Amino acid sequence: MSRLGELLLRDQLISPEQLELAQEESRKSGERIGHSLVKLGAIQEENLTHFLSRQYGVPAINLAEFEIESTIIELVPKDVAARHRVIPVSRSGQALIVAMADPSNILAIDDLKFLTGYNIEVVVASDVAIDAAVTKYYEPKKSFSVAIESLMNELEAAIEIEAVKEEDIKAVDLEKMSEDAPVIRLTNHILMQAIDVRASDIHIEPYEKSYRVRLRTDGVLREIMQIPIGLKAALSSRVKIMSQLDIAERRLPQDGRIKLKIAGGREMDFRVSVLPTLFGEKIVMRLLDKGNLQLDMTKLGFETDQLKEFKDAIKLPYGMMLVTGPTGSGKTTTLYSALQELNTPDENISTAEDPVEFNLPGINQVQMHEEIGLNFAAALRSFLRQDPDTIMIGEIRDFETAEIAVKAALTGHRVLSTLHTNDAPSTITRLLNMGIEPFLVTASVNLVEAQRLVRKVCSDCKEEVPTPKDRFKAMGAWDELIDTAQFYMGHGRDCKTCGGSGYKGRLAVYEILTVKEPLKELVLQGASAAEIKVEAVRLGMKTLRMSALIKVAKGATTLDEVMRVTAGD
Question: Global pTM?
Answer without folding.
Answer: 0.68
